[in-house]
Design goal:
Order of helices and strands: EEEEEEEEEEEEEEEEEEEEEEE
Strand content: over 45%
């Protein structure tokens, strides 16, 4: 619960209920989440009641602790979920001083976060690994992975920096690299879409892990992760309320202005275009006048990631991601 001067955190009971005592009066924004669900928001006054609806999906901007784990064989630089503390190397940030700005909180995962000099708490003499909880993807044809990441590599014991950030997918005992970055940059970058089906089997024990390493000879190396998401697509089992052949095509995507949305809804009924942000909040809905056509959206949207989908009163299309730059 985020208020004007105070923030409170609580874990609900298994039935989803929670109670807070000694809360300063005022209006609060409630953010609720659980691994396997998109976060939901609501507002409540102190001593009031609130119900927060959350839908299925895999998303984490690290405001909440949803159960990621970390391991290390390095002497320093373990992954930590916190507000990042910037460090400098050659007049540029080695460790970030802020998370990705559009996710409405100030937390992310970074490697080492004690501040000080660039080499004080960076990764040294080994690797550090950050791993998601398991994702249940067996009922889907694909899972589209994306994330924002930080990778900085410079200075150190001489020679060209040779360290790396590797992202791996795990499924049914198999571990496969899906993304590797060796080029240093003092800034957050977007991964782009990674189709997990191209690397591992879609099972109910899919995980993703981020491995940052300091290879000999040692250099300054820092990594970060924020706004993690996996969008399941294409049901493999029969879902009577899902319209698999509904079409949404966005151009351009990403876009710095607006998106041209070409849509097709194969069922003869009223259809609505719904847009949500990554907190699950509805940004806009638009009743479409025909079952196919083109509409323009997004000119006034803030920078960020959005999910667009078509639906009727009884049927739902598969969501498509739009990136507003």
């Amino acid at each position: 619960l985020v208020g004007p001067t105070q923030t409170y955190q609580v874990q609900t009971s298994p039935s989803g209920q929670f109670n807070l005592t000694c809360v300063e009066s005022g209006a609060y924004t409630v953010v609720a989440g659980q691994w396997g669900y998109l976060p939901g928001t609501a507002t409540v006054s102190a001593n009031g009641n609130v119900t927060v609806q959350i839908g299925r999906g895999y998303y984490d901007d690290f405001l909440l602790d949803l159960g990621w784990t970390n391991s290390s064989n390095a002497s320093s630089g373990d992954w930590i979920r916190d507000e990042p503390v910037g460090t400098f190397n050659n007049n540029e940030y080695a460790n970030p001083d802020q998370d990705v700005l559009f996710d409405d909180n100030d937390k992310c995962y970074t490697t080492g976060n004690e501040g000080g000099g660039a080499g004080s708490d960076d990764i040294d003499n080994g690797s550090v690994t950050l791993t998601t909880p398991e994702m249940k993807l067996a009922d889907y044809q694909d899972g589209i992975l994306s994330f924002w990441y930080w990778f900085y590599n410079g200075g150190g014991n001489g020679g060209t920096p040779n360290d790396k950030l590797v992202v791996e997918a795990l499924s049914n005992g198999q571990t496969v690299p899906v993304f590797t970055q060796t080029v240093s940059q003092s800034g957050w970058r977007f991964s782009g879409d990674i189709h997990l089906k191209d690397f591992v089997a879609m099972s109910d024990n899919v995980q993703v892990q981020f491995v940052a390493a300091d290879d000999a000879p040692g250099h300054v190396v820092e990594a970060g992760v924020d706004v993690f998401q996996v969008i399941p697509t294409g049901f493999t089992s029969v879902q009577p309320d899902l319209v698999n052949d509904a079409k949404l095509l966005l151009s351009p995507n990403p876009s710095a202005t607006e998106f041209a949305v070409r849509y097709s809804w194969p069922v003869d009924e009223n259809v609505v275009l719904e847009v949500r942000n990554l907190l699950g909040q509805i940004v806009t809905t638009q009743v479409l006048g025909a079952n196919n056509g083109i509409v323009q959206v997004g000119a006034a949207w803030p920078q960020g990631v959005y999910l667009l989908s078509l639906h009727s009163a009884t049927r739902q299309g598969i969501a498509v991601k739009a990136v507003k730059q």
